Amino acid sequence: MCETCGCAVPEHGHESHTLHGAPGADVRALDVVESLLHANDREAAHNREHLDSHGVLAINLMSSPGSGKTSLLESTIDALGARWRIAVIEGDLETENDACRIRAKGVTAVQITTGSACHLDAHMVHHALHDLHLNEIDLLFIENVGNLVCPASFDLGQHRDVVLLSVTEGDDKPAKYPVMFRKADLMLLTKSDLLDVLDDFKPEAATAHLRALASDAPVLCLSARRPASLAQWIAWLDEQLLRHRPAVQRPLAVG
Length: 255
Ligand code: MG
Prior knowledge:
By secondary structure, the chain is an alpha/beta fold. The protein has one domain (10-248): P-loop containing nucleotide triphosphate hydrolases (Rossmann fold, 3-Layer(aba) Sandwich), CATH 3.40.50. It contains eight helices and seven strands. It has helices at residues 25-53, 69-80, 97-103, 122-129, 173-176, 178-182, 203-211, 231-244; strands at residues 57-62, 86-92, 108-113, 139-143, 160-166, 186-190, 219-221. A seven-stranded parallel β-sheet has the order 3-2-4-1-5-6-7, with helices on both faces. α1 (25-53) runs parallel beside α4 (122-129). The N and C termini lie far apart (44 Å). Magnesium ion (MG) is lined by residues 69-70, 98, 143.
């Protein structure tokens, strides 16, 4: 597990974790973690100001590893065409593989390799923003490290959080990882083309588990392999961008 993410923080979902050591050590450890999170929040606010000054909408994509974040980005780039100017920040422990896949689509991608860290943080994203020309971007996707726990605790400066749950996972994931799913502005049920052969995943059950968290976030079912299934996702992106940038001058392209 990551050594820098503060996995002992109660809100981090590790309430039962016990810190052992000298008397007072647990209190000092929590003080350090809270200080780190406050520093992260300050840098995230700075990132958001930076993005806002250029009218860029940033969307943080979070999920388990292998739920199809990069595939969704590839198909989203194809579906959007020239509608919006896109850039991507990719987060992985190692390799530049995902950034290469995005660049192959003709879209700028900055890879962050986190080493042992199981999440992105605001400082990493701040560095990545300096490698982007924000005045040439409408929509910035941040693909977080595949992990349903730690990324939920770190604000990056994004405007929306989208959580993917693939139909190859359990439909009770929202119940098991409430901090992550409660944070979602949108839940995407991905790899829906496999629903025909996976009869143990019920989209309505996943939605019910999300609603049990008092979340009214929309839920969309789609497959990166089936472009027609992306229509509501694309419409959601359009709506968010137009809401975020009321003064946007560029008309939506047809198709
Ligand atoms: Mg990926």
